[in-house]
Structure formats: C-alpha cells, structure tokens
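Target protein
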Amino acid sequence: MTTQVGRLPEAAPVTVVRARRSLGARLAEGVGGGLLRVFLIVVGLFWLVPTIGLLLASLRAPEDMNASGWWTVFSKPSQLTFDSYQKLLENGDITNSLLNTVLITVPATVLVVVIGSLAGYAFAWMEFPGRDWWFLGVVGLLVVPVQVALIPIAELFGKIGLFGTVFGVILFHTGFGLPFAVFLLRNFFAEIPRELLEAARLDGAGELRLFARVVMPLGGPAIASLGIFQFLWVWNDMLVALVFTKSGTQPITVALQTQVRQFGNNIDVLAPGAFISMVIPLAVFFAFQRQFVSGVMAGAVK
C-alpha cells in the first residue's frame, strides 16, 4: 500500500519594501562609520599635541631644548632623561607649592561636597520657614563674580588673622563653591521619587539616616560630578591664590608663575612642574569619568 505524501504549498514570495531615503540620509549613514571615527581620532590626536609636547619637553635636557624642538625626540630617543624631574624634586619652592595645592584643593572639595549635599537635601525635601526664599538667595549668589569679593574678603581675613594662610584660601573656595553645589544637588535630589523616601520614613528612618542610606547612594553621579568640577576649579586657580597666599603658602600655579618671572630660562624646572600640575587633575577626571557622565546625563531620560 503506497502512501502519498502531499506537497506543502509553497510560501508566497515576500516582497521587502524599502522606504525611500534622501541622499543626505544615505550620506550621513556612510559617513557615520569609519570616516567619522577616523576624523574623531585625528581631532583627538591634535588635541593631545600640547600635552605630548610638554611631556617630551620635560624629559629633555635644557641644552637639547635650546637647540631644537621637542619633536626631534622621535629621531633621537637618546635625548630622553629624568634629570629634570630630579631637579624638580630638589627645588623646595616647587615641592612645597605642590603640597600646598593638595592641602588647599582636597579640603575645599570635601567641604563643598558635604555641605552642598546636606543643604541640597534640605532644600529639596525638608520643610522650614522661608525655604524657597532662601534657595532663591543661594541661586542669586551664583551671579556674584569672584573679583568683586577679593578686596573686601582680603581686608576681613587680614583683621581676623587668616590672610596669607592655607585655611583662608580653603574658606574662600568653599564659600564661592557652595552656591553652585547647592543649586546642582538640590535639583538632582528633587528628582528622587517621593514614594521611596516615604517608604524609608515608614520603616523608621530619620532624616540623617534617610540622607545617608537613600539619598547619598542615589545622588552618587551628581556628587561625583560636583567633586570633579570643584577639584578642577580649585587646583587650577591662580587669581585667588595670588591675592590670599604668601611665599610659604603658594600653590603650584603661583609657584610656576614666580619661576617664570624670576628665571625666564628655567625650563628644566618649569616643564616637569607644569606637566605634574596638569596630569594630576587629568588623572582625577579619568578616574571618575563614568560617574561624571552619569551625573551630566541624569534626568535627561526618565
């Protein structure tokens, strides 16, 4: 007995309809591949040329720098030496100024982050008389330029004995960093769901515990962004340091400027000092770049 197996019906041909796209869209799709990446790499390399040049200049002897440009290192690698960094470590003014920079920048950054976080949480979620008016006053301080307050605060610090001290510079940077910190963190903390905070309060959490266990972990990206901004501003500051510091409390920016003014050809100290002054903030930025990007993009997508 023969069983006849029927043939399955052939599938109907599927017609793929492609939407018509403009010439500009097709060109943008083509350029968005390899050509765009190559272009971005070239731009990045050009952007790094000054940094690379400064690094190579700091690794050359003074006579080599006076004879030719830093790019000759690629044809004569024997010019590279660490003698300039050794001389830098033997220069007491530069090493002390680098220590002063750390002593100024780290406390000024920590104080702004801690006080700004507490104030931002208070303005976002705590009820107290005149809260909105106080916040408007803090926002109004953002438009006050630093130059306006230099002379009055210098006179005040002179009367109370803080002028020329590291602590006085820390107070100045903290005071002028707090308005932006409070404004940034208040707006970020206000986006936290109210239900989450109410659930924590129902579980018996007080305000300090709520701030430490709920708000701070959620506000990590914004706090990291604020810390990076404040660190870079204070580390690279020169105006405030010129006004409020003396010879023994000067940061690296003022010390390098003094070296240029006194010894114009002292390039064997200036080049490594400038590179160290630049590479430390870059290292801090790259160490926290993921948190920085998260903080910048926070609130962009719900």
The CA atoms of residues 193 and 199 lie 10 Å apart. Confidence is low (pLDDT under 50) at residues 1-6, 14-19, 298-302. The first helix runs from residue 23 to 31.
